[in-house]
Write a structure and sequence with these properties.
Layout: E1 8-12, H1 17-28, E2 32-37, H2 40-48, E3 55-58, E4 78-85, H3 91-114, E5 120-128, H4 138-145, H5 147-154, E6 159-166, H6 171-182, E7 193-196
Parallel strand pairs: 1-2, 1-4, 2-3, 4-5, 5-6, 6-7
Helix pairs in contact: 1-6
């Protein structure tokens, strides 16, 4: 049985539907959670659903140079970055997609500097508004194709990186797959990318 007892997990962009689903399930499996997001009310709503209250950080807008506002929460056992790629010609969406990827990459570097001994499971969880093979966003394809490269880059830092991409709103299926990829049961899965589609 999968357990996260005595494990500290960081979830960024936790103020999302899948962030909430993951938080509830990981908490029920014993994880100590650190939730980061911009929507204070949504994060507090998540907190009320959990038996063990998480540490919550309200992040300033990632559009402000995509900066990480707080690095004191990086002594962790696992990291999940929840993302959503909206394929659109809208400049605002494109900028948000770019900032989300830059934020994720900055977080990986910060975690590497903060952790010297622990084995860390990392999962990039992407939800998209199109089927994976139909999405033409340059940032989406960048996220898809960087998993193996990042795994090689951070391998000696004991960071095990995988990516999960989905065009479905089935939070149950997404969260169950994500939890497995974060667990020690999948400790030999490194640098892989999985697609979950309605079709």
């Amino acid at each position: 049985m999968i357990s996260f007892k005595n494990k500290k997990l960081l979830i960024t962009n936790a103020d999302t539907i899948i962030g909430r689903e993951l938080s509830v399930k990981l908490n029920s499996l014993g994880a100590e959670l650190i939730l980061v997001g911009e929507d204070k009310e949504f994060l507090e709503e998540i907190s009320h659903k959990l038996s063990d209250k998480p540490t919550i950080y309200i992040n300033s807008s990632k559009e402000q140079n995509c900066q990480i506002s707080n690095k004191n929460y990086l002594e962790i056992d696992g990291y999940i970055h929840c993302d959503f790629f909206e394929e659109s010609d809208n400049k605002e969406y494109k900028e948000l997609n770019r900032c989300n990827i830059e934020y994720y990459l900055q977080m990986l570097d910060s975690i590497k500097k903060s952790n010297s001994l622990k084995n860390i499971s990392v999962l990039l969880l992407i939800n998209t508004n199109k089927k994976p093979f139909e999405n033409t966003s340059i940032y989406y394809y960048g996220a898809r194709n960087m998993t193996k490269m990042l795994s090689l880059k951070y391998y000696n830092s004991k960071m095990r990186i995988n990516t999960l991409i989905s065009d479905t709103n089935e939070e149950e299926k997404l969260s169950n797959t994500a939890i497995y990829l974060l667990s020690t049961s999948s400790r030999y899965i490194i640098g892989e990318q999985y697609d979950i589609s309605n079709n």
